[in-house]
Design brief:
Layout (H helix, E strand, L loop, with lengths): L4 H12 L3 H17 L1 H4 L9 H18 L3 E2 L5 E3 L2 E8 L6 E2 L7 E8 L4 E7 L16 E2 L2 H5 L2 E8 L4 H4 L2 H7 L6 H11 L5 E2 H8 L4 H12 L4 E4 L3 H9 L9 E9 L8 E3 L2 E5 L14
Parallel strand pairs: 3-5
Antiparallel strand pairs: 1-2, 2-3, 4-7, 5-6, 6-8, 9-11, 10-11, 11-13, 12-13
Length: about 300
Amino acid sequence: MSDDASLKRAFDWFRSQEDFARRFGEAIRRSFDEVFDGQRTGRYCLDQLTKVEKTYIGTKVEIIVQDEFGLSRGNRMDFLVADQEVDAKWTMKSGAWMIPTEAVGEICLCLTADDNRSVFSVGMIRPDDLLLGSAKNKDGKRRFNDLGNQSMTWLVESGQLPENVLLHLSAEIRDRVLDKSKNGQQRVGDLFRLVQKRLISREVLLAVAHQQDGPKRARDARLSLRSDGILILGHQAEHQRIARELGLDVPEKGSWISCRVVPATKGIVFITKIGESNWTPAIDDEAFVEGPESY
């Protein structure tokens, strides 16, 4: 890349953006979730999509990445990055990008992700005949050859994709959480009861509730789960403090985390004060104790 000033300029622009790796990962996560459309369909994985919907993920990634980084549309290619024409390329399998004739010789932003492993990668390259295989598909597109794959310059290689929580639950727990014989409020309650100490995104909550008012269901679940000592923490400042002091991941806006607590005694590592009492995460075999009235 060192002898390709235009490619280096576009690459350096992305590297200069604050939290660029996290933002790429969140853009891909959002793309998956929007195509799943869990609120309406209850879907949570790629295997549940049609072939056409899987194809559309690439378009969705392009749209959301453009919006996330505030990029203008290019004159020939998808984006303008530092005044350089850049084409977006997506594949579900790293190294399997298909390069059409019109993108040969152009700067390409190549994105891929594996939802099962919660990893994603983003690289940049200017494909030419030396870097592409000779075989073409029926549309005249070609894949990178070994040299092409080795020549990719990575912005993010094997970065952490925000977890698809429903996909990674055991089949038993997932079936209980998504049980259609229960109403949305009951399913949300089961979600926070059975999936504790893991961040729950708004998209997961909507897919489980299968309703538009998923966030309200989370608030209502706080009341129903209080008898079991289960806290449901959101992005409010006091909730973030509690999560931090309990040693949990701290929820940001649009996410929640649950944890069963018991009154704290001396010598406990993680203690938080709620009201006038101290609380600590419960151990699995500890007796259930009613949780704090308000937090």
